[in-house]
Amino acid sequence: MAAAVNISQVHKDYGTLHALRGVDFDIPKGCFFGLLGPNGAGKSTLINIMAGLVRATQGTVQIQGYDVRQQWRQARHSLGIVPQELAFDPFFTVSEILRLQSGYFGHGRENQPWIEELLHTLNLDDKANTNLRELSGGMKRRVLIAQALVHKPPVVVLDEPTAGVDVELRKALWKFTNDLHQKGHTIVLTTHYIEEAESLCEQIAILNQGQLVALDSKTALLARRPYRLLHLTLTNPDTPIPSALQDKVQSFADGELILRLHRDEDKIGAILESLRTAHIQFSDLRTQEPSLEDVFISLTGKAHDPR
Ligand SMILES: Nc1ncnc2c1ncn2[C@@H]1O[C@H](COP(=O)(O)OP(=O)(O)O)[C@@H](O)[C@H]1O
Ligand SMILES: [Mg+2]
Q1: Same domain, 186 and 302
Q2: Is residue 92 part of a domain?
Q3: Does ligand 1 have an atom closer than 6 angstroms to the CB of 41?
Q4: In a shared domain, residues 219 and 297
Q5: What is the pLDDT at residue 1?
Q6: Could you tell me the residue range of the domain that residue 41 belongs to?
Q7: Using a 6 Å cutoff on CB, does residue 42 contact ligand 1?
Q8: CA-CA distance, 170 to 297, in Å (whole number)?
Q9: Are 172 and 142 in contact, with CB atoms under 8 Å apart?
Q10: Is the CB of 43 inside a 6 Å radius of any atom of ligand 1?
């Protein structure tokens, strides 16, 4: 069975700049897939190649088995793209732009109930006759999403849909994409919000400087981080920390000692024993697993800061 998206040895050069260098992976059908990476990693370039908006210098991309160049029409029909940039023709109203888009994909009146359902789900009912130029950024974002879904594509790609939107809309979009996923759509999400990828995505690819640096299930990626944290609430915080533990101290403030433990090398039993020997007592202890953010930083060397 063909993958939802097949990316094969894709290179993209802009002059001397190598935006993508041999990117190669598949996105399985029905997957909620996260494409992460710092600014300039090549995420939007890859998505624009999928959409047929940018031509790869080398390599091929297929959507649901259709080559984006040889079979561009079928490939384009299989894909709904929510672009990163808010670009619109400002002369149309919301429902006009959706009908136009629907017509572009060969649909007629029979698609009107779906357009209305989209307007309703995205809370745009009362904006249907509003001109696009009069909408706020958040509302425009919703229209872009409706536009991407107007032809019911099996694969939906969202390029940083929640960058710069308020918390309420972000939550609404999370729910919306999750519902699409439940209905069987393949979802590809690029995001600057690690917690978004962490809560939504099943599989994650990390791009860095045009190359794939990780491709794994979320669970496996999280397990890759060799460290975990041990939090201890000390009852006698003035007692000196033994020198053997000094290099494991992540932070120590207000009686809360946080030790960074190597998953294999540092045994919790031995750590607690050396605390006891040093007469350090504690009233509470808990361990904390690494976040996707930690994994991201260790793989790209960059913090994944939200804008
Ligand atoms: N049209 C273009 N012309 C020249 N360089 C570009 C163009 N589009 C993107 N780039 C460059 O390609 C690299 C990847 O950009 P992009 O795909 O937008 O990254 P991301 O979406 O991961 O932030 C960046 O260095 C960017 O400046
Ligand atoms: Mg981008």
Answers
A1: yes
A2: no
A3: yes
A4: yes
A5: 66
A6: 1-78+153-163+179-225+292-307
A7: yes
A8: 24
A9: no
A10: yes
Considering the entire predicted model, what is its pTM?
Answer: 0.83
How many CB atoms lie under 10 A from the CB of residue 154? 16
Q: Do 45 and 4 have their domain in common?
A: yes
259 bridge partner residues: 230, 249
| Tally of domains within the chain | 2
Query: How confident is the model over 82-94, as a mean pLDDT?
Result: 84
Summarize pLDDT for 210-236 with one digit per residue, the tens: 999 999 998 888 887 778 889 999 999
48-59 residue pLDDT tens: 999 999 999 999
Nearest to 173 by CA among 122, 128, 139: 122
- The closest ligand to the CA of 20 turns out to be 1
Domain assignment present for 122:
no
Atom number of ligand 1 nearest to Cα 47: 17
Task: Give the distance (Å) from ligand 1 centre to CA of residue 208.
Answer: 12
Tell me, yes or no, whether 171 lies in a domain. Answer: no
The pick from 13, 14, 48, 159 for probing ligand 1's pocket by mutation, whose C-beta has the most ligand atoms within 8 angstroms, reads 14
Residues 74 and 2 in one domain: yes
Q: Tell me, yes or no, whether 157 and 43 share the same domain.
A: yes
**CB of 159 within 8 A of CB of 81?**
yes
Give the residue whose CA is nearest to atom 3 of ligand 1. 14
Q: Report DSSP state, residue 303.
A: -
Contact present, 61 and 72 (Cβ < 8 Å):
no
Q: Which atom of ligand 1 is closest in space to residue 54's alpha carbon? A: 1
Is the C-beta atom of 53 inside 6 A of ligand 1?
no
Residue appearing with tokens 């939200």:
306
Q: Is residue 17 part of a domain?
A: yes
pLDDT of 307 reads 45
